[in-house]
Each structure stands twice: as structure tokens, then as C-alpha cells.
Please model this.
Amino acid sequence: MRVMRYAAGWIAPLFIFLALLGGCGGDGQTHKVRIGEVTRSVFYAPQYVALEKGFFKEEGLNVELQTTAGGDKTMTALLSGAIDVALVGAETSIYVYQQGAEDPVINFAQLTQTDGTFLVSREPMDDFDWSQLQGAVFLGQRKGGMPQMAGEFTLRKHGIDPQSDLELIQNVDFANIAAAYASGTGQFVQLFEPQASIFEREGKGHVIASFGTESGRLPYTVFMTKQSYMKKNDEIVQKFTNAVHQAQKWVQEHTPAETAKVISPYFKDTDLDILESAVKRYLEQGSYAESPAIAEEAWNNLLDVMEGAGELKERVSVAELADNKYAEAAVQASPSP
Model:
């Protein structure tokens, strides 16, 4: 009887230990991963879903998120080791490569697959035509950043030279563009959500076109890390990608209202109906990637956009700066219904 009582005393704790072990990604450890996101936007809804629904935790990852406003600042944080993973435009990895980095930055999980900005005007324009931008004052984005390059790509597609056919303003810091437009700078502006929907509600602007629809599929925002980190933390990168794919599926399988509710803690000053409107817009134009893999066709379109903006020194293949093995494994392990 003493043996039975002794066994009963340690069997329950053993089961608790095994349960905890299973909740730590299978190796008994919780791994810390620091993400730096280029901005806070509904455009990145799947990332916030992965955090709020516990998909990272299920993989044994303790993820810390910080906003490192602007692509240049985000990449500086990654290269300096201040963050482990960057959520930023794939073009930044190409810039690092062009500078001859010994430790290149590798893209491993795509989050968004189109541009996320919308063309906003001060007045409603129900019959808008791109030719109406001729001679206008256009408040653009940072030179060399994906929003600006995708914007210029779209303008050229419609026969408008962004340097000579309109007055292009590019000296406003990324974080202050919305405020500058609200204060009266420019007739037109490129805005991400939820700012575009907020301006519509407040009567400060009207969405008249989508740069995402116009510029086509792009590896627009991607999770990336240094090659050295990837080599040392192969399993962590895989677990991270697994969680991202789970979130991508969740967003596709739920309504904009449900997604808005889940991500609302990251937008405490934004009403739920605004968040829902923003998510709906991005879903309708296919901005949220359904797979973390980066397609060669989308990568080549990115190179075309960069080339058109004069920011590409030489074309680099997707195989050079993207590793799809993590995405492919994540999709295979969790196929869509």
C-alpha cells in the first residue's frame, strides 16, 4: 500500500510535467523571438492573429513585438541584433545584398502579397481616372520604400511620369504622412489602413483607388532574418513559420468582423467597424497571403518595380534571398481544408 501511495504521489506531477513539455514546442524550452514590424497596420492582421490566438505559443515561442517605424530603421535593428526577425518589405533584403553584406538577410515567410496603400483624395471622385493626377500635388512615401516604388510603378503604368507630371512631395517622415495630409499638405496621398478608413469617416479624405490592385502580386511584407540566425536557429524559424501559416488560414476562414475583434488590442484607439472595413478591403483585393511561400513570379514583379524606380543595381533570383523550405513544410503540415 505504501508503494501505491508513493506512486500516486508522483504520477500526477509527471502528467503535469509532460503536458507542460508538450506546450513548449516539443523540446521542453520556450524560445524568445523579437520581431520588429515596419509599422502598425491592419495590413499585418495575420501577425496579430498569430499572437492573440496563441499560435506562436503553441509552437513554444515567446514572441516580443515592437514597431520600428520605417524600412531603414527596421533593417538597422535587424542587422545590429536589436531584433531577431523583421517584418518589412522584401526590397530591404535586396538593398542589403546590393551593399555586399557578408551576412545577407533571407526572406522566409511572406505575410502580404500586394501593396497595402490606397489613393486618397480630398474630394469624392466617383468617376476617377488616373489622368486626373496630372499636375496635382501628390504626398508620396519615402524614396526607395515599397509604397513609393509601387506608387510610381502604378503611375507609369497609366502614362504618368511621377517626377515631371505631378508635384511629388517625399520629404515627410513615414510616421507623419497621415498627419501632414490632415493638416493640408497635398491634394492626393497614399495611405495604409486603418488610416484610410479613418479619414473617410472624419471627412478628411476619400479612397478612390487601390495601389495593391494596380501593382499586382508582390512579396510586399515578409518575415526575414539574417542568414547566420537562420543557420543557428533552423527549428525556431520553422516553428515561427508554422504559426504564421496557422494565422493566415485563420484569417481566410473567418469573417472580417471576427478578425477585427481579435486584432483590436493592437489598435486601441480605432473603432471595431473601422477595423472591420480595413480587413474587408484587404481580403477583397487578396492582400493577405494564403501561403508563406514567395512565388518566383511575384519576386520578379518586385524586381521590375524596383528597376522602374531606379533602385535596382542588378537582378537577383528569388533563390538567392528567399528560402521557401520553411513555408513549404508549414503548408504540408497544415494543409488548407
User: Anything to note?
Assistant: The chain has a mean pLDDT of 90. The CA atoms of residues 129 and 209 lie 9 Å apart. The radius of gyration is 22 Å.
